[in-house]
Amino acid sequence: MGQQNERSVEVVTADPSAIGLFGLAMVTLVASTEKLGLTEGTSLILPWAFFLGGIGQLYASYLDSKKNNVFGTTAFGGFGLFWLGVGMTWMIQMGALGEPLFLNADSSQLGVAFLGYLIFSIFMTVGAMGTHKVLFTIFVFIDFLFLGLTLSSFGIMYPFSSMLAAVSEMLIALLSFYGSAAAVLNTHFGRVVLPVGKPFGIFTEVKEFKSAA
Predict the structure, then answer these.
(1) How far is 192 from 203, CA to CA, in rounded Å?
(2) 3-class DSSP assignment, residue 124
(3) Minimum mean pLDDT among 5-14, 31-40, 176-185, 186-195: which range?
C-alpha cells in the first residue's frame, strides 16, 4: 500500500524544467537585448534577474531535489544563484549599494567568477547529454556565453567576445522558451507536440553494460 502511494505521488509530481527553463528564457532574453545594443542599461533587467533568473530557477531546483534529480537540482540551483549574484553585481556597479562598494569594484574579479561558471557549465554540458538534445544544445550555448563573458571581462578580443556572449545569450533564450513549451505541452496533451530529441545514450549504455555484468 505504501509503495502504491509513493508511485502515485511520483506520477503527479510536475516536471520542474517547465518553470525553470521559462525563468532562464526570460532573463536571458531581456539581458541579451542589452548586450546586442537593442536596449540600454541594466536597471530594468534586475527584476527579471532576481525573480525569474534567480528565484524561478531556485524553485525549480527545490522541486527537482524532491524528485532526487541531482542534475536538475544542481543546474537550476547553480544558475539561479548565478543570476542573483549578477543582479547584485549590477547594483554595485550602479552605486545602488553605496559609493565605497562601487569604488572598490574590480572587473577582473567578475571575469574570474565567469571563468568558474564556464568550468561548471562544461561539466554540466556532459551531464546534459543524458537528458535530451534541446537541453544539451542550451548548455552548449551557455558554454559559449561564459566563454564570451570571461574573455570580454578581461578585455580579450573584446568586440568578438562580447558579441559571442550576446548572440549565445539570445539563442539560450529562444531554445529555453522551446524547452519550456515542450515540457508543458508534451505533458499536458500526453503526446509529443514539440520534439526535444532523445538522450545521446553514451553513458546510459555504459551503465546498462555494468548492470548486466
Answers:
(1) 25
(2) helix
(3) 5-14
Planar angle of CA 160, 54, 144, nearest 5 degrees: 20
Type of residue at 202: I
Task: Provide CB contacts within 8 A for 71, sequence distance 6+.
Answer: 124, 127, 128, 130, 131
Q: Which residues have C-beta within 8 Å of that of residue 83, sequence separation ≥ 6?
A: 27, 49, 50, 53, 54, 57
AA letter at 93: Q
**Interval 152-179: pLDDT, tens:** 999 999 999 999 999 999 999 999 999 9
Is the pLDDT at 128 greater than 90, yes or no? yes
The phi and psi torsions of 50 (rounded to 5 degrees) equal -75, -45
